[in-house]
Amino acid sequence: xxxxxxxxxxxxxxxxxxRRAEYxxxxxCPPCPPALAHIWNAFARLGARRASGFGTAPISxxxxxAFQRLSGIRLMxxxxxxxxxxxxxxxxxxxxxx
Length: 98
Known about the structure:
The protein is mostly helical. It has helices at residues 3-13, 17-27, 37-48, 61-71, 77-97.
């Protein structure tokens, strides 16, 4: 389940209006620019198959290369860098929550 799905479930079950507002605020984010949607989708697909263990493992270059080969999606070097930055941000947020 995605974090968005978890938040939507919490919003549905929240009885305290203040807590509900906190969940809704966390859920809100600006829409993804259409020009970057393919990067976000690639990151989401890669992240969904992330290796697990004692922490959140980074998405490896081997995983990105295999993703490109198997999906037929060719990423430019700048797009790979964006996925790396998204992954770094994701792991920073997840380690702060732990």
